[in-house]
Amino acid sequence: MSETFLTAKPAPEAEGLLKRFVDLAHPRLGTEVVSATDDFFADKSRMISPEPAIFIPGKYDDHGKWMDGWESRRKRTPGHDHAVIRLGQRGTIHAIDIDTAFFTGNYPPAAEIEVADTDDVPSEADWSVLVPRMDLKGDSHHVVETDASRPWRWLRLHIHPDGGVARLRVYGRIAKDWDGVDGSETLDLAALVNGGTAIAWNDAHYGAPANILAPGRGVNMGDGWETARRRRPGNDWCILKLGHAGTIERISIDTAHYKGNYPDRFSLKAAKLTHDPLPEDAEADSADWPLLLPETKLAADAVKDIESLRPVGPVTHVRLDIFPDGGVSRLRLFGRKA
What is the pTM for the complete model shown? Predict the structure, then answer.
């Protein structure tokens, strides 16, 4: 096997989508490719790998050329292939990216996507078309905006008639059912899995702010929010929207993997709003929010737990300020639903 490999380039519009939304197809959220009509050449599970697709010249297995994605065999019977994906977290879908990176003579000429919202495996009557049949190109991204008016749990990707898809990205927002959450239960109000999201920031050069709300600890320095080196006065910031209004009682901030580039200090402000601030107005609108936690020192590659917070009551949004710049891996805002 060759030691060298090529890495697929992200689509510029997909990079922007990932900063504004969550990839609902990410395995860390519990998403699985549960079935495929055929995955002879390349296992269906590779299609939702979080890393960009790679191509390794000279790598073969028992079935032929090894490809990083889902690839079915050449179809010799009527019909077409499809794969079924169960989202780990039910959510609204704002855009889809069907990526055929490195599939040049073996990509599907066309694809379509159906969705369903059932607890168990959908029946044929449960499926609805989200992305109508569209033409595909080889070694290309196909980013399509979708109707995000309601949440979904299942996707079915049809490829016509066969071939390979390197990656499927599903950009959206998690729709947690808060009706079943007791007001006395303590949970992370800002967690991605609870519907938390990042809505505004001044810099996201090295990583999306929403990463700091993801499950588990960061896997590396790229799995967090890191700003460029600041060469002017001031500090960097981001604004987070909680999954539900609530009272924050304790916090945990993690600078895992950030050793020479962690922020020296951080602070938190919070407010209860009836609507999200516009991105262009967010910095000014949030400047005078009540202080939840004053400037507090941070350390490299470490978790800091804080239980002494100022009483600001129920809030919907939090502003994280880092001084002056740097990287944060995770932020947990534990509290109770209002």
Answer: 0.89
